[in-house]
Amino acid sequence: MATVSLQGLTKEFTGTAAVDNLRLDIADGELVSLLGPSGCGKTTTLRLVAGFLQPDGGEIKVDNEIISSPSVLIPPERRNMSMIFQSYAVWPHMTVGQNVAYGLKFKKLAKTEIEQKVERLLRLVHLETLRERYPNELSGGQQQRVALARALVVEPKILLLDEPLSNLDANLREEMRFEIRRLHEEFRITTIYVTHDQAEAMVTSDRIVVMNKGRIVQVGSPKEIFDQPKTRFVAEFIGKTNILVGRMEKENRVSLADGLGVTVAQGAPAAGDGQICVCVRPHNILLTADDSEARAMAEKGYNLFPAVVQRRIYFGDAVDYLLEMPPHPMTLRVVASPSRQYEKGQKVFALAHRDHCVVVGEG
Ligand code: ADP
Ligand code: MG
């Protein structure tokens, strides 16, 4: 059982803050991912939590006890945490079974107890039949599961994972995301999961912490982060999006820089002088070539943009369109079902419901 609290956590390297005043409370049994581009401070945060680095400001508490601050540093081996790095080193000269048992070696347990724990873990990660193999006789995904089993067998209070899947090929990576979530539901160990891959964060996490330049920009469930991004950075980092730039004209109405207008979701800020952005996801835009259908949808709260298909890419399960709106310079990306298809050069109507047009900050 462990809660983790970061309170104003700050770490500088040569005068620049790699981690800048982070505030975050992680509940017992929660899996939280730190998501953001390379260099935004994810690994530094994890190394601070693990105790490999000492903060320059703020503190880290586990179960309300200070484990790190500028004046306190409980060493890593006394933190009851397991950490898995990007290069998940498993011992090449040890079998799968020996690798998993290794973590228990220093715990002074009876041989039969070690045996039982290793057995159970190997079954949970589906490696029970590969126990006598050496790592070079395993696939990348199997090696990764050995690393996970070795980290879990010691029953840590906290699990720290730093881009654990980035050395795997695309198919395995996708499969292992589900595996990590399944294991989390089995063990419920408080976990911090670092990744730059938004899909990985969506599948594995209870909550996602989006970071940029050493700071937290938004915290929320995968759905909140995707549907209600607070800033342009979050909207563009999490999935594909159209960003329409404009100004609040009156309640829920935005005039776009391109001379067009769009009605946006409830809760938009009041009219002001500043430039704002409207986020519209490509899969939330519908297409029709039928004039009367388009008018009927407009009556039901859809924004209607007459457009021309400039580019069409067929993906099998979806079609990706780029639309132009002459004489306006605006373009729209649309991902639509392949059941109806439109040709390059064809005139269409793009329809975006106001609830799917979300105002986000410029940041
Ligand atoms: P991420 O894991 O999100 O890619 P890091 O936490 O590794 O980012 O790095 C954050 C920033 O801190 C980067 O600008 C990086 O160059 C810098 N940094 C990380 N570790 C060190 C170090 N030991 N010495 C100097 N700068 C570092
Ligand atoms: Mg990193």
The SS-based structural class is: alpha+beta
Cross-sheet strand order for the largest sheet: 7-8-9-3-10-11
> Low-confidence stretches at least 5 residues in length (pLDDT < 50)?
none
What is the assembly state of the chains in this entry?
single chain
Question: Which percent band covers the strand fraction?
Answer: 35-45%
What does the average pLDDT come to? 93
Sequence of secondary-structure elements: EEEHEEEEHHHEHEHEEHHEEEEEHEEEEE
What is the fourth-level CATH superfamily of the largest domain? P-loop containing nucleotide triphosphate hydrolases
* Euclidean distance between termini CA atoms: 37 Å
Instruction: Give the domain tally.
Output: 2
